[in-house]
Amino acid sequence: MPVEITVPDDVSPGQKLLIDSQPVAVQQAVPVTTAIVVPSAPFLTTCPHCHQNVSTRVTRKAGLVPWLACLGLACVGCCCGCCLVPLFIPDLQDTSHFCTNCDTFIAKRSPLKAAAAASSSSSS
């Protein structure tokens, strides 16, 4: 790395200069990411796209968890439609959060990931 040195005017050519070199500490910014637990209900946040403080709009969709629950109930003998009950339980569904101002996707909550985050935080 080149170093710029300013020579005083009273120094003649050929004269030796004593240069005091001290180590310099250089700090680099380290990005820190934190995992947040996304709730299944609408929450207040700042939209990363329009930078407005908004309450999110929520959409729910049956993901992997309710379908696995249906399969498990069908395997133990629930039939006649009883095995489909998990498809209608909101806490088992995947929840997507959108900005109410610009309709930008903000976050997604999956019951599997929420359970994994809860178990890892309780074991720490």
Any overview of this molecule?
This is LITAF domain-containing protein. The protein has 124 residues and is of the alpha+beta class. Strand 1 and strand 2 form a beta hairpin. The mean pLDDT is 80. It has a 3-stranded antiparallel beta sheet. Strands 1-2 form a two-stranded antiparallel sheet. The protein contains 2 helices and 5 strands. It has a domain of 80 residues.
List the helices and strands and how they pair.
Elements: E1 44-46, E2 53-55, E3 57-61, H1 64-75, E4 94-98, E5 105-109, H2 111-123
Main location: membrane
GO cellular component, one term: cytoplasmic side of lysosomal membrane
Transmembrane segments: 64-89
Q: How many alpha or pi helices?
A: 2
What's the β-strand tally? 5
Question: Helicity, in percent?
Answer: 10-25%
Largest sheet: 3 strands, antiparallel
Question: In what order do the strands lie side by side in the largest sheet?
Answer: 3-4-5
Rounded mean pLDDT is 80
Q: State the order of secondary-structure elements, H for helix, E for strand.
A: EEEHEEH
- Structural shape: elongated
Strand content: 15-25%
Radius of gyration, in Å, reads 30 Å
- Report the end-to-end length measured between terminal Cα atoms: 44 Å
Structural class: alpha+beta
Highlighted features:
single chain, 124 residues, alpha+beta, 3-stranded antiparallel β-sheet, two-stranded antiparallel sheet
